[in-house]
Write a sequence for this structure.
């Protein structure tokens, strides 16, 4: 038997499927399957099963729903213990052999680490074929449709978007048209589908239709949102008007330069001696880089392989001098006791940039090479150990010490099998979590990053924008730093907007951002480089109870300090601190950063924008 979520919720046996009728047990089953393998609290189940106020005998009614599900399972030969009663809630185990959602995610994960485009395309098609329509169409829970269905839909659209990219890369434009035409019509809010459709039309020799499609998109955006198309779409439009040959869209060619921002958002290996100008520095790199499943900065030495190019500094890096000095000493010393370093901190705090800057400053200490591996999928889910090992750079026996950066780790269990032996080199782990267990078992150096000081934030803006521009508006520069909460991610995004708009005043930019700070701290042509998306991704890693607790704490502490909590709640605060949402703690007060308090307000009761499950 197999459960199907990607469409109407049903129980399938081979070619035969039973679509479940809308009911409270169906809501319950959908919730348990979406959170399969995890304990779902009774409070959250009550929310998703009943939506409004649950009955007076809610716990008994929930137990009755579980009993009805078990009877249904018995009818179809499904084991009674598939639903487990756990302290505080219930858990349902399901994997890729019993749940289509798990199969979909496994196939997409395998596609991300595929070594060739044909395999990646095949796996993505196989994953997308599991979808039988909009998810949970026979589930009546408003909570699930509000909180979970958009996330599931996003996973499908991201996979479809990637598949269309591959079709275009391989020159299969007519096949891409078949894939993307309906997607662009059904999801006009996703501008990337419109870009792909216009490009596929043009590359198929249908220039007029491509231009008509662009005008349709432009008019819709202007009428609905009052904005112009994004930079990538405008560059594509200009190329079509000029009749340019987009050529083969393989990485690094003319099309890549056309459709991507002119400066990469991750630090590149730099073999030149000159320092890049401020206009280039401002766009590199974002802290908390969201997206690549693997980014390797590897070098080789004189062991028969190519010589090692110099790893350039992080453009515009500023601040953290004392912590950087400590890390440099540890990396340069080559002491086996310093073979593991944990760099932790809140989302957007600058952990990746800090690690890369240290790697640059100590590159001579690692003749065996330096590598950075992402530990999460594009949607924030952790990669498993086998997926990471598949991307591991080849070894270089006898080449000397090497440095391995495991970026955006989620759990200690994910990390332990990958640590370099002390005799081989040093492993740096960046994570939003404190990873206290890893520090306890391996005796690592732990560096916890906080927001920049006011002076460091101002220096970062000076480095990114250039001293001359900042000198003309020093008060506005300080106001912009305070507005961004001294968070490096927010500061870099604001600086990128100013750098690409040389005639925009800093004060004008700060005033515009302040009207809707979280929504506007993003880069239009790089949707993943967004404060809101980074924080959303971090919040989705929390359980529903922790999300609720964070909102209650952040909206109930106007000065950002949580001075006392009941003893029973200390465990919740420890978990929020571990996840990077609050700082410090007993015996000192807990702190919640200003940007996080602003983020939490959109979930507070009475707001119209978003809502969290009420625990």
């Amino acid at each position: 038997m197999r459960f199907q979520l990607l469409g109407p919720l049903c129980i399938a046996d081979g070619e035969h499927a039973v679509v479940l009728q809308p009911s409270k047990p169906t809501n319950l089953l959908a919730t348990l399957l979406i959170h399969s393998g995890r304990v779902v609290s009774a409070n959250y189940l009550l929310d998703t099963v009943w939506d409004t106020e649950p009955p007076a005998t809610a716990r008994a009614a929930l137990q009755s729903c579980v009993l009805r599900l078990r009877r249904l399972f018995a009818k179809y030969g499904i084991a009674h213990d598939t639903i487990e009663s756990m302290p505080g809630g219930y858990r349902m185990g399901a994997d890729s052999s019993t749940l289509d959602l798990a199969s979909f995610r496994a196939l997409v994960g395998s596609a991300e680490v595929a070594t060739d485009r044909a395999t990646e395309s095949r796996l993505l098609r196989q994953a997308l074929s599991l979808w039988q329509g909009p998810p949970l169409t026979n589930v009546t829970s408003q909570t699930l449709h509000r909180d979970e269905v958009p996330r599931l839909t996003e996973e499908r659209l991201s996979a479809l978007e990637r598949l269309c990219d591959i079709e275009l890369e391989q020159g299969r434009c007519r096949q891409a048209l078949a894939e993307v035409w309906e997607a662009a019509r059904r999801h006009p809010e996703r501008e990337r589908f419109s870009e792909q459709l216009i490009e596929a039309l043009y590359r198929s020799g249908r220039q007029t239709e491509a231009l008509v499609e662009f005008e349709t998109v432009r008019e819709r955006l202007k009428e609905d949102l009052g904005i112009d198309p994004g930079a990538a779409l405008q560059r594509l439009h200009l190329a079509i008007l000029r009749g340019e040959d987009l050529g083969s869209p393989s990485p690094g060619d003319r099309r890549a330069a056309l459709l991507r921002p002119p400066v990469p958002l991750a630090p590149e290996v730099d073999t030149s001696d000159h320092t890049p100008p401020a206009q280039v520095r401002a766009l590199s790199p974002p802290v908390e880089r969201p997206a690549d499943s693997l980014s390797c900065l590897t070098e080789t030495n004189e062991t028969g392989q190519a010589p090692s190019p110099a790893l350039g500094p992080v453009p515009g890096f500023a601040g953290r001098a004392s912590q950087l000095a400590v890390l440099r000493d540890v990396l340069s010393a080559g002491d086996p006791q310093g073979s593991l370093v944990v760099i932790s901190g809140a989302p957007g705090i600058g952990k990746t940039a800090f690690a890369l800057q240290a790697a640059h400053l100590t590159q001579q200490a690692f003749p065996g090479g330096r590598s950075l591996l992402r530990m999460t999928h594009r949607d924030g889910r952790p990669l498993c150990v086998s997926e990471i090992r598949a991307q591991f750079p080849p070894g270089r026996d006898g080449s000397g010490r090497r440095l391995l950066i495991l970026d955006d780790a989620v759990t200690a269990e994910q990390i332990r099998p990958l640590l370099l032996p002390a005799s081989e080199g040093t492993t740096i782990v960046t994570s939003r979590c404190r990873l206290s267990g890893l520090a306890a078992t391996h005796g690592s150096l732990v560096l916890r990053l906080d927001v920049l000081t006011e002076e460091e934030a101002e220096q970062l803006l000076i480095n990114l924008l250039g001293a001359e521009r900042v000198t003309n508006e020093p008060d506005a520069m300080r106001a912009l730093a305070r507005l961004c909460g001294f968070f490096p991610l927010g500061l870099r995004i604001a600086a990128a907007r100013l750098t690409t708009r040389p005639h925009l005043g800093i004060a004008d930019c700060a005033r515009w951002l302040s009207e809707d700070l979280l929504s506007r701290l993003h880069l239009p042509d790089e949707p993943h480089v967004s404060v809101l998306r980074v924080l959303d991704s971090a919040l989705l890693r929390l359980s529903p109870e922790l999300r609720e607790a964070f909102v209650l704490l952040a909206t109930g502490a106007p000065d950002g300090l949580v001075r006392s909590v009941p003893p029973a709640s200390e465990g919740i605060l420890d978990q929020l601190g571990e996840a990077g949402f609050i700082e410090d703690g007993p015996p000192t007060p807990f702190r919640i950063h200003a940007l996080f308090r602003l983020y939490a307000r959109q979930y507070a009761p009475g707001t119209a924008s978003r809502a969290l499950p009420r625990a």
Summary: The chain has five domains: 1-152, 171-260, 282-446, 454-524, 542-601.
